[in-house]
Design brief:
The chain has six helices and 30 strands. The protein is mainly beta. A six-stranded mixed β-barrel has the order 5-6-11-7-10-9.
Length: 450
């Protein structure tokens, strides 16, 4: 079988407005963890009724206390719901995908921390503002087939959710056509899901965390493998995440994914270094038992991390966070911003080299990515923040932009990782690989108001 394999460009969203606190709130919701540092957001208990209850119904329902993300009022300190506008609901980068026959085009967020492929659809209420979005119309696709009895629902820690029903259709990712791929059609979208410019999400985690019921469905990458759309010897995908800050570097800030092959240009002559992953929770999770801040080596016995392209920040434990910002002149923790801040006038030579272990080899965060977004009053929100009570690190774009990542999907052969900025998601071999990206210039500044 011939394989039509090419780069899938990651397109910068021109309407994206970076916000440190909003991005942190988004992660509090996505991973439903409790903050351990002071600030306006916290995880509280909320009574939820289940079963038969209410006017005109028989008694006998159950009241359960559910953990939900809440926000303290700035006036009286009382807890309340988290407004949709308080979290980052937009995606910084999107990829073009087509669905159906004839093809309908969508811009989707590729997310290694999720396993659902969902899109805006004509099944949304007519009152939904679809301006600026591509909306999938199953009636206009001759290859669409509804999956009777299947539904899906994504719920976040603040109670926001997206849900709908399911069908199958042909999906084109970078010229590679996946036949009869399950598509989750949005029927309801709460404000947190509907306010961004993207048209949905394509999950690249393992299908065990797919939300379709009564039976989870295979992810696009799993179907690529099952349908031999990608070579048996290369059951992998890679992520090369660029930045607007890299426009003067040799790669001009290129940003893309590949499926079924390693991009030799991105490898830049390097041999990837690989480590086994634990996919029991559905994530790309690996051992990360050391970190370095400047010349200081920090032991982190038993620690693990997940690589998540759907996360802008990097989240680590509080003691490591403190060590990182203690090494940055003028850095401080701000209760109102619920995060660590760095002076906006910081120069590259004043920033430490911060590295995280990937199964025995450390890979550094680019110094320019230690700063994330303008925080006002002469400070910048840091790209590394507290993971709260989460038992593992989340290494998002802050760290991933420093490597070329390779992820293999199911076991097969043996390779080793080197120092390049490329992420290799080897799903075939259940391992994660990386090489260091060639990025000679570093610019820690961020535009004011961004």
């Amino acid at each position: 079988m011939s394989h039509n394999l090419t780069r899938v460009k990651r397109l910068h969203n021109p309407k994206y407005q970076p916000s440190g606190l909003k991005s942190y709130v988004f992660l509090l919701n996505k991973y439903n963890f409790a903050p351990t540092k002071p600030g306006p957001y916290f995880q509280g208990g909320k009574v939820q009724q289940k079963g038969k209850h209410g006017l005109g119904r028989l008694f006998g329902g159950k009241a359960q206390v559910q953990k939900v993300l809440q926000k303290r009022s700035t006036t009286d300190g009382q807890p309340g719901d988290v407004p949709a506008e308080d979290q980052q609901n937009d995606s910084q980068y999107l990829c073009t995908v087509t669905i159906g026959t004839p093809p309908q085009t969508f811009k989707l967020d590729f997310d290694t921390g999720s396993a659902d492929l969902w899109v805006w659809s004509t099944e949304l209420p007519k009152s939904t503002n679809t301006s600026g979005h591509s909306v999938f119309d199953p009636k206009k696709s001759s290859t669409f087939k509804k999956t009777v009895g299947s539904t899906w629902k994504i719920s976040y820690g603040d109670g926001s959710n997206a849900s709908g029903d399911v069908g199958t259709d042909n999906v084109n990712v970078g010229g590679l056509v996946i036949q009869k791929q399950s598509i989750e059609l949005a029927k309801t979208l709460s404000a947190q899901f509907s306010s961004g410019v993207g048209d949905g999400l394509l999950g690249l985690a393992y299908g065990t965390i797919n939300t379709v019921t009564p039976k989870p469905v295979a992810t696009p990458v799993e179907n690529m493998i099952a349908q031999t759309d990608i070579p048996k010897t290369s059951e992998l995908f890679t992520a090369y995440l660029g930045s607007y800050k890299d426009k003067n570097d040799p790669d001009h800030g290129a940003s893309f994914y590949t499926f079924g092959y390693l991009d030799e240009t991105a490898l830049n002559g390097q041999t990837p270094y690989y480590t086994p992953i634990d996919n029991s929770k559905g994530f790309w999770q690996f051992n990360s038992t050391t970190a370095s801040v400047g010349s200081k080596k920090i032991q982190r016995a038993g620690n693990t991390a997940i690589a998540d392209t759907g996360t802008t920040l990097a989240l680590v434990d509080d003691s490591l966070c403190q060590a990182i910002y203690d090494a940055i002149p003028g850095a401080k923790y701000d209760d109102q911003q619920q995060g660590y801040l760095i002076p906006s006038n910081i120069t590259v030579d004043k920033l430490p080299v911060v590295s995280f272990d990937v199964g025995g080899k450390e890979f550094a965060v680019q110094k320019e990515d230690l700063t994330f977004a303008d925080a006002g009053n002469g400070f910048t929100y840091g790209g590394i923040q507290s993971r709260g009570d989460l038992p593992f690190d989340i290494l998002g774009d802050t760290w991933l932009k420093g490597i070329y990542a390779v992820r293999f999907i199911y076991p097969a052969h043996d390779l080793e990782i080197a120092n390049v900025r490329i992420q290799i998601f080897d799903q075939g071999n259940k391992r994660f690989g990386a090489v260091v990206r060639d990025d000679p210039t570093q610019d820690p500044s961020v535009p004011a108001g961004q």
